[in-house]
Amino acid sequence: MSNTELIGVAFISVYVDDFEKAYKFYTDVLGMTKSFDMGSLACFLNYGKEGKEGMYLQGGNDKADFKESSSRPAFVLSVKSANELHAKLLQHNIRMIHDKPMDMGQGDFWFQCYDPCGNIIEFLGGK
């Protein structure tokens, strides 16, 4: 392996227009925890089994004008039960892309939704 070979994802960065709305979604709905503030409209959040995975959340950005077919990056978060999370997000009136998680085979289920600021998030997990 060379010193320039990619070895993993250091953390996710999410840029939003409405910091408070996004912060409540990522913490209250998805259960991420704030590790530390990074200014008045930014913070670092943790998630995962050991709370070591991270996400930088920055507000105060201009809202991007995307069509549903626009090219853009997204990220996939692992979850124990894709079906249970899908149901929870529906209860919180989160805008879904898929009506239900898709069976990807080998016990994996996947779906996409939008965060409150229009970013696509994908989830992969068991039934």
Shape: globular
SS field, number of helical segments: 2
Distance between the termini: 36 Å
Order of helices and strands: EHEEEEHEEE
Give the percentage of residues in beta strands: 35-45%
SS elements, strand count: 8
Low-confidence stretches: none
Helical content (DSSP H or I, runs of 4+)? 10-25%
Structural class designation: alpha/beta
Mean pLDDT: 93
Give Rg in angstroms.
15 Å
State the strand order across the main sheet.
1-4-3-2
Query: How would a crystallographer describe the biggest sheet?
Result: 4 strands, mixed
Write the layout of secondary structure elements.
Elements: E1 12-15, H1 19-29, E2 33-37, E3 42-47, E4 53-58, E5 75-81, H2 82-91, E6 102-105, E7 108-114, E8 120-126
Parallel strand pairs: 1-4, 5-8
Antiparallel strand pairs: 2-3, 3-4, 6-7, 7-8
How would you describe what is shown here?
- The chain is α/β, with parallel strands linked by helices and 127 residues long.
- The protein is 17% helix and 36% strand.
- The chain contains two helices and eight strands.
- The strands form two sheets. A four-stranded mixed beta sheet has the order 1-4-3-2, covered by helices on one side. A four-stranded mixed beta sheet has the order 5-8-7-6.
- It is globular.
- The model has no long low-confidence stretch (mean pLDDT 93).
